[in-house]
Amino acid sequence: MPTLTRDELAAETGADVGLLDQLVRRGVLRPDERGRFSSGDVIRVEAVRSFLVAGVTLGHNQVALESGQVTLEFLDRFYPEPAPRSTASLRKLASTLGVPLELLSSCYLAAGLPEPPPDQPLREDETRLLRDFVELWRGGGSDALVRAARLVGEPARQVAEGWTRLYIQRISEPLAVAGMDTAERIEAIVTTTEQATRLAPRMLEWLLFAHLRHAIDQANIEGLEAGLAEPGLVP
């Protein structure tokens, strides 16, 4: 993603430019000499917005940042770079696919995600996934779409939350009391956090394909047995 102007960053994140100006003054965002922002700043703004939704004020954020309890500087090392925005919003995509907007919103909720604003452009990877998802499951009816979203969303949420809790309990908290100086501790935590956030999706993809292979083989075996049993070729 190329660098962004203030207005482009606001459009990318859905944040008010006034909030962006406050984050610059507080040192959370550090534009370059041309006043442009990086893709990592998209992640930082979205993180701050999630704090605000949870009731953590900008003042609380500032205290936590200044005390070293929280740092947003390294967030872009933990997540993949955000895909560019597409030309399609959720409302437009629903219309293009010929499904009710409420159904797509229900799929987000079933997957454990907040539904996006209906007229905010979706990201390109999200748009492609939703299009493929609807094209596959629409033949099974609305219920199949919602159930499929829940089937992938609930285990993903459980893994993400459990993986994070285990990392905090067994890696980051012990590092915090290991007697290192602040710079060493931060670097150790950032490095291991980066490893953890990059490893989880790779393991999930590998395991999912392994389990899919087993499930498909099992379904084929059951189908073969049923096909042989119907004409009496096997008991």
Task: Write a structural description.
This protein has 235 residues and is mainly α. It folds into 3 domains: 6-77, Multidrug-efflux Transporter Regulator, Chain: A, Domain 2, CATH 1.10.1660; 86-177, no CATH class; 180-235. It is 67% helix and 3% strand. It has 9 helices and 2 strands. A two-stranded antiparallel sheet has the order 1-2. α5 (90-97) crosses α6, α6 (101-110) runs parallel beside α8 (142-176) and α8 packs antiparallel against α9. The N and C termini lie far apart (61 Å).
Task: Offer a few descriptive terms.
3% strand; 9 helices; two-stranded antiparallel ribbon; Multidrug-efflux Transporter Regulator, Chain: A, Domain 2; 235 residues; mainly alpha; 67% helix
Short description:
The protein is mainly alpha-helical and 235 residues long. The chain has nine helices and two strands.
- What are the segments in which pLDDT stays under 50 over at least 5 consecutive residues? none
Number of strands: 2
What strand line-up does the widest sheet have? 1-2
State the end-to-end CA separation.
61 Å
- Tally of separate helices: 9
Portion of residues in beta strands equals under 5%
Overall mean pLDDT stands at: 91
Radius of gyration: 23 Å
Structural class assignment: mainly alpha
Order of helices and strands: HHHHEHHEHHH
Provide the helix percentage. Answer: 55-70%
Shape field: globular
* Largest sheet properties: 2 strands, antiparallel
Tally of discrete structural domains: 3
